[in-house]
Amino acid sequence: MNVCMRATFKCTWEEMIARLEHNMSTISAAHTGWTVAKESDHSLVFLANITDFSALSEPMMNEEQVQWDKNNGVEYIAYTMQPMGG
């Protein structure tokens, strides 16, 4: 996994996961896998192996997604990751 993102949100857990599943399905060629860990009813940690970062930016930054995030109080902090050791 090369991306870690923490998200907080005001919508329900189910709404957030449904939106995330939808977004990731639209860019299935841009990743080789992803998973989510539930921190609380209103926060999560997302891990993914992204192979095409430009394809990822379209569903995350388009006008509809930006408005959805705003309407649902979503805030993201994203990190890149690299494997440790050799």
From TrEMBL:
<protein>
    <submittedName>
        <fullName>Uncharacterized protein</fullName>
    </submittedName>
</protein>
